[in-house]
Amino acid sequence: MKCTISPQQLGAGLSAVTRAISSRNTLPILSNVLVQAREGAIELTATNIDLTIRHTLAAEVQQPGSITVPARILSEFVSSLPEAPLNWELDQVHQTVRLQSGRFDAHIRGVDAAEFSPLPDVADGVQVELDPQTLLGAIEQTVIAASGDEGRPVYTGVLAEMGGSEITLVATDGHRLAVRRLLVAEGSAGVGDHLSVIIPARALAELARLLKPVLSSPGAVTLSVGGSRAQVRFDLPGYSLTSRLIDGVYPNYEKVIPQGAQTTVRASTDELRRTTRVVSLFARDAANVLKIRCESSQLVLSANTNEVGDNVASVDASIEGENMGIAFNARYVSDVLGLLDCPEVELILNGPLAPGMVRAAGEDTYRYVIMPVRVAI
Amino acid sequence: MTGTRTILHVDLDAFFVSCELLRRPELRGRPVVVAGGGESHPGEARSAGRSVVSAASYEARPSGVRSALPLARALRLCPQLVVLPVDIDHYARISKQVFAIFQQYTPLVEPGSLDEAYLDVSGSQLVAGDGPTIAAAIQTRLADELGLPASVGVASCKTVAKVASDLRKPRGLVVVPPGQEGDFLSELALERLPGAGPKTVARLRLLGVTTLGDLALLDDARLRAVLGPQGEQLRDRARGHDPAPVVPPGVPRSLSRERTFARDLTDLTEAQRMVRLLSFAVARRLRAGGLLAGAVSLKARFADFQTTTRQLTLPRPASADLELVAAAQELLRRVWQPGVRLLGVGAEQLVPHGQGQLFEGPAEKGARLDVALDRLRDRFGTGAIARGIGSLGAEEDWNRDHLRQLGPPPAGGGGAPSAL
């Protein structure tokens, strides 16, 4: 194995794939990155078994081959180098990589590529193509509602329901729920039979990170679910991300989405976002309580914390139906307002104890449901 | 904070009577009193002779009937008087609705008792208008939505707001503009000042001080001679200076029940049963107060008077019977040794609100059962219903629970239960 590569490009690729490496892994080989050189390109792969990220970058390959190298020392060394071509040469007998660039000459001991766990298989499955920009938006609008609590595994995932040309992403932590519908990319085949999988939110968050820099490059994202329904893979320009799927029964989320509306509020998204942020500064105790009152033509937001102080502010709004008051965790409200880019936002409420819904006015592509906080008055 | 504060003192007119008239409208316009059955001792028959007037309608007042008057005398003064018994639960329920209206104008509501409160609306001007506007709006809403008359005083401090609300009852609205507090108070009699009791007033009279204006002008030496170190504060208030803030009631930090046994417990099953009952009692108190416990504690005193207290943090704040019991039983298991003379179960790290769950799990179902059981007990008494593992009426002899307040206790509360 022998090749020449730009240290900047290699460094960027390493920092993207090594995010799959867990700091708590128990198998030493999982701290290594797999480097495979073939005609005109090298591939970098890192994994923690659950999540695998692979990056392909152009290189001048004189002799193909593969090796695994401790990711940390390789990244640190490569990213410290000045911009000058990096020559990479593997001493097959000693499994040692010689890295030579400008006046630096380093040797890093590697481990045979055969020891590296094989890339999970997604053959014989379902494949659809998605527009990267749409997918990125849908991921950002849903992963925020997923839970970090490993005690309830399905809550740490995002449910992807696929059927025909439509996909619905759903996430919840039991207190709030985000539901986003999207269509497969134009020209893509649809999903034949209805298919539901639960993708770890962490994997989707990593995918979003990979998507941002490639939004401008042409090409769709391909989503593949393996025939055994155990793995999902996303292929995008330069990268592929493979993740284990979460096994479990997702709660019946449709049941908690409000159907009618006792009170419908419309307000400027910007104004409500800004006001919520300022008032929330005073929601400092465990439950972050933000109180909202709908009164004739305004929303009155208030928060108070005994040791801190209080804040009251109003936002102009159109209110249909009953005047009422409700309390939410302020973070759940500001989270969703930060993800909406519509001029007008709609709040659908059914009394102080029933779930409330936030969405772009008159639209149901994205729905965000919040369970209120019970406040003793 | 800079600038002038705007404080409202809202005082419901003849509140107990007003509450009774809501369900007995035919009594409107007649002289009515609500009279307590006298603080009769257990076992002693309730006698009309011991009853005291708790509240009197404005129709009864011209004949001299007022609150705190013995009922027998009130009846002599006004023989056609309609006498109704006190139903504090009814008034407390209505009081909750009253405070819910207050809360819509400011979170800074300090209850004085069931029927009066201070509201600091300094920060509500942009949203709801200035002090007099809010005062009028509250009066209108209390009248229209609840059918209750109220008097309101608006001023820059609590003392002046309270004096103002008292001045033109019933249905009075008295506004004291900033800067005019001293003038407003000066002509008023000493007794009008909250905190000026009969003894203080009598002493000041001896000095020829009869109005608040006189008190405001009293020099330091004489002030101290008559009233001691407290005098200065009283004089400040007579001048209309009162920096005391409006303090919403604090959430208690913990809540507990304990019991000492006639003979030491040596049987674990028996101890477990006690812990269960104590936990149920604590859980019910939590729910009644709209509180959730972040942790549960268990106190055990052994035969040798050694006392151990252990605490367990709950996975999430709870007030459900079974969640509290489970934690308390786990703690009992850790400290158990035969020969226990006292057991106590406490709810710690209390929070006044709970994040609702979108998807109903076993905990939410349990919580609904608790609420249903509480409702039955509220209606038919504590002994009306119990879980199969509980026992009927067993809560009677618990020791009083300890409540530690975070904030200062409500001012002028006179021991009345807080409506919040």
Instruction: Determine the oligomeric state from the structure.
Output: heterodimer
Structural class computed from helices and strand pairing of chain B = alpha+beta
Please report the distance between the alpha carbons of the first and last residues of chain B: 27 Å
The CATH class of the largest domain in chain A, by name, is Alpha Beta
Compute the number of helices of chain B: 14
Strand order of the largest sheet of chain B: 5-6-1-7-8
* CATH homologous superfamily (4th level) name of the largest domain in chain A: DNA Polymerase III, subunit A, domain 2
User: Uncertain runs of chain A with pLDDT below 50, 5 residues or more?
Assistant: none
Radius of gyration of chain A: 25 Å
Shape of chain A: elongated
Largest interface: A-B, 39 and 32 residues
How does this structure look, described?
- The complex is a heterodimer of chains A (377) and B (420).
- Chain A is an alpha+beta fold.
- Chain A folds into three domains: 2-115, DNA Polymerase III, Chain A, domain 2; 126-253, Roll (DNA Polymerase III, Chain A, domain 2); 258-370, DNA Polymerase III, subunit A, domain 2 (DNA Polymerase III, Chain A, domain 2), CATH 3.10.150.10.
- In chain A, 18% of the residues lie in helices and 45% in strands.
- Chain A is built from six helices and 26 strands.
- Chain A has helices at residues 7-17, 71-80, 132-143, 201-214, 269-280, 330-337; strands spanning 2-5, 32-38, 41-47, 51-58, 60-63, 65-70, 86-91, 96-101, 104-109, 126-130, 157-164, 166-172, 176-183, 191-200, 221-225, 231-236, 239-244, 263-268, 289-295, 298-305, 309-321, 324-329, 344-349, 356-360, 366-370, 373-375.
- In chain A, a hairpin with a 3-residue loop joins β20 (298-305) and β21.
- In chain A, α1 runs antiparallel to α2 (71-80) and α3 (132-143) runs antiparallel to α4 (201-214).
- The model of chain A has no long low-confidence stretch (mean pLDDT 92).
- With 420 residues, chain B is an alpha+beta fold.
- Among the domains of chain B are: 182-238, 5' to 3' exonuclease, C-terminal subdomain (DNA polymerase, domain 1); 254-403, Dna Ligase, domain 1.
- In chain B, strands 5-6-1-7-8 form a five-stranded mixed sheet. Chain B has a four-stranded antiparallel sheet with strand order 9-12-10-11, covered by helices on one side. A three-stranded mixed sheet of chain B has the order 3-2-4.
- In chain B, a hairpin with a 2-residue loop joins β5 (109-113) and β6.
- In chain B, α1 (15-23) packs across α3.
- The radius of gyration of chain B is 26 Å and the shape is globular.
- Chain A binds chain B through residues 172, 174-177, 251-252, 256, 285-287, 289, 291, 293, 295, 298, 300, 302-304, 306, 310-314, 325, 327, 329, 353, 355, 369, 371-377, and chain B through 96, 99-100, 103-104, 106-108, 123-124, 126-127, 248, 250-251, 289-291, 294, 317, 351-359, 406-407, 420.
- β26 (373-375) of chain A pairs antiparallel with β13 (353-355) of chain B, so a sheet runs across the interface.
